Amino acid sequence: MVLKFGTMAQQDAIRNSYRYRLALLKIAKTYTTVSTEALQILTGCEPLDLLADRVHLQFQMFNKGLKVTIGSKDYSSSDFDNVNIFEFPPWDCLPFYCRACDIPLKDTKNIFTDGSKLDARVGSGVVCLDQRDNILWQCEIRLSDEASVFLAEAYAIFIALQKTREDETIGIYTDSQSVFQALESPRSYSKIIVDIKKLLRHINM
Questions:
Q1: Among 5, 52, 140, 183, whose CB has the most other CB atoms within 10 angstroms?
Q2: Which stretches make up the RNase H type-1 domain (predicted)?
Q3: Cβ neighbours of residue 47 under 8 Å, at least 6 residues apart?
């Protein structure tokens, strides 16, 4: 007879931790004596407990619309994007400098982005014009009513970059000075800004 102690949740946690360690060993291809913490650093994999906490907080905030407590403060989905709740790797937060331009570039596609909040409704709009100002494509995205105008402006730029091919030159125009400042700051931990920086680095590679 085999005796097992602990609750079902504790036993599941032990089994999951063991499976997680086996996966890390396969990825890192190191000796089995290497600690789990070292394997996490070598592979860049997030610890399971931190991942579970992050997913739980995001679900509570965005899916259930509840306030979450982090440290001694309460946060809701409306101010999540401006709060450093989860620490991003420093290389994802490097500054990206933008050039102000009042006149659209010639001989290239130009994409105009905008975000707004009207009657408690928030949305983003993007339109792409060719060299003769003909509309190539356009899209409108309805966001959560809890979203900020900053998020709407930034999300419009994110959509524009997603639709950009690596082999083409385009001009992207926005009237949001706050988004420019966030892109140029190494201390901006907004998730949408980090996602934009990732796309910019990928396109410029």
A1: 183
A2: 105-205
A3: 40
Q: pLDDT digits over 184-205, tens only? A: 887 776 778 888 888 888 776 5
How far is the CA of 189 from the CAs of 35, 162, 183, 196, in angstroms?
30, 20, 10, 12
Q: Give residue-wise pLDDT tens across range 33-76.
A: 999 999 989 988 888 888 888 888 878 876 777 788 877 777 76
How far is 191 from 194, CA to CA, in rounded Å?
5
Give the domain extent around 160: 109-204
* Joined tokens for residue 108: 């290239």
Tell me: do 132 and 149 sit in the same domain: yes
> How many domains are contained in the chain?
3
195 and 114 fall within a common domain: yes
**Beta-carbon contacts of residue 137 (< 8 Å; ≥ 6 apart):** 127, 128, 163
